[in-house]
Amino acid sequence: MISIPSDVNDILKSLKDNKHSAYVVGGCVRDFLLGKNPKDWDIATSATPEEVESIFDRVIDHGREYGGVKVLYNNEIYDITTYRSESEYLDFRRPNIVEYSTQIIDDLKRRDYSINAIAFSEEDGFIDPYNGQADIAKKIIRCVGNADERFIEDPLRILRGIRLASDLKFEIENDTKKSMAKNSQLVKKVSKERIRNEFNRILVSKKPIVGLSVLDEVGVMPFVLSAQLSHKKIDFNHKKLLHMRDIEYVLDDRLIYFFIYLMEESDYDAREIKDMLVDLKYSNKTIGKVVLALELYPLVIQENSLKEFKQIISCSGLIEIKQLLRLARELNRDNDSAKENVEEEEKMLSMIMGKHHPIFMKDLNIKGNDLIEVGIPQDAQLGNLMKDLLVFIHLNPEENNKEKLLQVAQELVHRR
Hints:
The chain is α+β, with helices and mostly antiparallel strands. The protein has 4 domains: 138 residues, 2-Layer Sandwich (Beta Polymerase, domain 2); 88 residues, Orthogonal Bundle (Hydrophobic Seed Protein); 129 residues, no CATH class; 55 residues. Helix content is 52%, strand content 9%. The protein contains 21 helices and 11 strands. A hairpin with a 3-residue loop joins strand 8 and strand 9. Helix 13 packs across helix 15. The protein starts with 5 loop residues before the first helix and ends with a helix.
């Protein structure tokens, strides 16, 4: 028996009072059976979208062409979808014709995986024609019906199944996995945004190595990354990727971690990885963060003096360098030399922040106008002079005062 929230029960009761059948269905039922608290409650009903509109006061017309509307009830939005019996999919995503049904079984028949094809109502209990409960108990991802047909209808289901296995720590049933491999090229038909969203969810799942290794095993990874396979064999089952589970569930952290690993283990460089990120439609902000980390990573795992480390920080930022050091430490658990260098830099960073050492141009107690006022020409060399002063302050943080900096600036000018 599922404990259904009172608002959801109210919606179900309203539909039934108007002589329609209705069930909670899909992910919410699956999550409840897994002992989780469902975030979203989806409802399937024999009522058509027009009939749903006639029952509820506040209805958002979204997805009506595919039999769905959204009902606003007590300031929460609930998806209500009419039972459907669908024909072929012409665009590898949406059915060519949507035919309504009065039977929940018809609706469950068109779903992707058995664990998502379970419906529940208090009157009828569980409706589970594809043994989804048994697959949950056995921790198996299995397609509903013919796997080839499911993946031809919507190839994104391949990525979704892999993501579910990664997030739930389930195994993909053998015939389903074989069909994923057989139909892997269909992923090229999926929009980059949809691919990116599923890839992100794999990265922030509980065990991303499961998803990454299966993406590689079934031949989908090249279509996810939009790249030719590296000439070097990349091990997507490496223990470094297993360590990703120990990183916080933060997308930026896991993106950077994964692409640093990819760069180290392949012959891809930062520019090529940037092209992958652009192709996957990541934001410019995200791309900038990842590419900067890729460029700085080889520097932070080598031995650096305090001056050199300060220059690395000045090229990024305190938050960015803290993030990169944290990820570099995880990536180099078994590399004693790199790990020692990173740990030493973490100590240096703690000292720099604790003593408020000047690091960035804005920290200098002098401005370009101050140099111009004492007769230093306002030309192309002025910017280089300011950079030289910053290097001086990296070595001599206690000398960060205007008088000393003017003196150093004039000495530098006279040497040129």
